[in-house]
Amino acid sequence: MKILYGIQGTGNGHISRSRVLAKELESCGLSVDYLLSGRAKEKFFDMDIFGQYQHRQGFTFISENGRINHFKTALNNNIFRFISDIIHLDLAVYDLVITDFEPVTAWAAKIKGVPVIGIGHQYAFGDNTPKSQDTWLTRSIMKYFAPAKYNIGLHWHPYDNSVLPPIVDVDLKRSTNKQHILVYLPFENQKEITRLLKRFPATQFIQYSPDLFNAQAGNVALRQTSHLSFKQDLTHADGVICNSGFELISECLHIGIPILTKALHGQMEQHSNALALKQLKYADVIDELSVDNIEHWLTHKASANLPPLPNVAKAIATLIANNNWQAFNNKTLNLWPEGLQCSRST
User: Fold this and answer.
1) What InterPro entries does the record point to (predicted)?
2) How far is residue 184 from each of residues 96, 111, 242, measured CA to CA in Å?
3) Residues near 128 by Cβ (< 8 Å), separated by ≥ 6?
């Protein structure tokens, strides 16, 4: 079986879980090519796992100071190039397309009649999934941005029979030597974040962002985003402050790290994640980053104390290798902890 795997590259979460699934697909002896879109190719880093991957412009969003700038987002995306990329993407040699909310591969497969599986967090947003700031536009984006006939959603709770637990590196272990608070707020103003963190001189922070260079600013270590160093610093973290994306929070839940999270304003998925975290009591959720909010969390932080996540990537890769993905149902895989039901948590 020959597979093309499309990965949305706007944030690092899609890439992070795709790294894990890529290893398991290879272990199952599957031949996989990769296509990434959503940011300029030179802004990707540590991409060896994906080999000689293809790149397309795709679609992305522009954020400023912790909120989406819809005007700049519209100007930055080229619908004519997007359509051209779909038309000219050659799928003749592929038996199957996997998309992690990557639109070029998803639409090309749909138009050209190649089976496509959607694997990712966005495919978990069914009727029972908690949603916040949900509108006709956001529902349309979720449905039509990267459509797939077969969906495997990923979430923190089995809101539907097609939803599995998050894909994480199950070998990730938390160190007993907890040294710092890890801060990853890539959609915020980094200078303002540094100034805010310096208000807590007794606490050591490591602040990561693609826009930073490695330096020291008082009690704040500034780090440019790197896959390996980030994972190492994550395992030694006494807590994590982050936006309400899916993958990093999933890794924190997996290894028992306390979480303080703020949704990116104007991003329905992140607001919905924040709502789910509140309902499940898995993280401390705030609307704004402030001295008072951070001080309270530093004093009272606690982990969700959940069991480690199962090897979801291996289960999915095996499902695909055995050609059983068409009739997927999470009950047959039995990956959710006993006692969780397919319903909304309150």
Assistant:
1) MJ1255-like
2) 35, 38, 5
3) 159, 160, 342, 343, 344
Count H helices and E strands in the chain, helices first. Answer: 12, 16
- pLDDT, tens digit, for every residue of 10-21? 878 999 999 999
Q: What is the pLDDT of residues 129-150, one digit of tens each?
A: 999 999 998 899 899 999 999 9
Is domain 2-169+310-333 classified as CATH 3.40.50?
yes
Classify residue 174 as exposed, middle or buried by CB count within 10 Å of its CB (0-12, 13-18, 19+).
middle
Asked whether residue 257 carries a pLDDT value surpassing 90, the answer given is yes
The answer to whether residues 89 and 104 touch, using CB atoms and an 8 Å cutoff, is yes
Q: Give bridge partners of residue 205 from the DSSP assignment.
A: 181, 220
Alpha-helix residue ranges (DSSP H) falling in 166-221: 190-197
Do 180-300 and 2-169+310-333 fall under one CATH topology? yes
SS3 247: helix
Q: Could you tell me which CATH class the domain 180-300 is placed in? A: alpha beta
Domain boundaries, the chain: 2-169+310-333, 180-300
User: What single string gives the DSSP state of each residue in 130-153?
Assistant: --SS--HHHHHHHHHSS--SEEEE
Residues 6+ apart with CB under 8 A from 234: 172, 182, 240, 248, 251, 252, 255, 257
